[in-house]
Design a protein that fits this description.
170 residues; mainly alpha
Length: 170
């Protein structure tokens, strides 16, 4: 109502996330369409990729793998087109989730290849995700070799918004 499209886009993004969290996929899909309209009016690349990410997630939630492949191709196009670091990061998280959920060894190996390009990063959450990806890729021994060290590090991590998901992965 204040006429600021960026504020509207933020509100719509938060609404999409909330609708996902409560499992209202139909409501989320409707809000994704509204967000897409707002993003189009803004005409900025940092907003344009969100709908394809959310539509890929909606397709997975519904078990529609064909739709997921189509929407993922659109998302990959946004990332390749330079939509920004946030788009690349969230697309990567999406791909990792696919590797976890579908037990897709090729996808897991692809994600591990991306992690390898980061170089040494001291982050327990990344280390836990890496171990899970190793398991999904079929390299259980590598994942297990460091698992004992992950538990105390995870228990000592900050109790922030990422702690509970990290503990679930662990």
């Amino acid at each position: 109502s204040v006429g600021d499209r960026r504020v509207e886009a933020l509100g719509r993004r938060l609404r999409v996330e909330a609708l996902f969290e409560v499992g209202d996929l139909r409501g989320a899909e409707e809000e994704v369409t509204r967000f897409g309209s707002t993003a189009s009016r803004l005409g900025r690349s940092e907003y344009s990729w969100y709908p394809s990410l959310w539509r890929a997630s909606l397709a997975l939630a519904r078990g529609d793998l064909r739709a997921h492949v189509r929407t993922r191709e659109v998302l990959d196009g946004h990332v390749a087109g330079g939509a920004g670091a946030n788009a690349s990061l969230l697309a990567f998280v999406h791909w990792g989730t696919v590797a976890f959920d579908l037990v897709d060894p090729a996808e897991a190996r692809s994600c591990l290849d991306v992690i390898d390009t980061l170089g040494p990063v001291e982050d327990v959450q990344l280390d836990i995700s890496t171990a899970l990806l190793q398991v999904r890729a079929g390299d259980v021994e590598s994942a297990a070799s460091g698992a004992d060290r992950l538990v105390p590090r995870a228990l000592g991590a900050d109790l922030d918004s990422e702690w509970a998901p990290m503990m679930l992965q662990l």
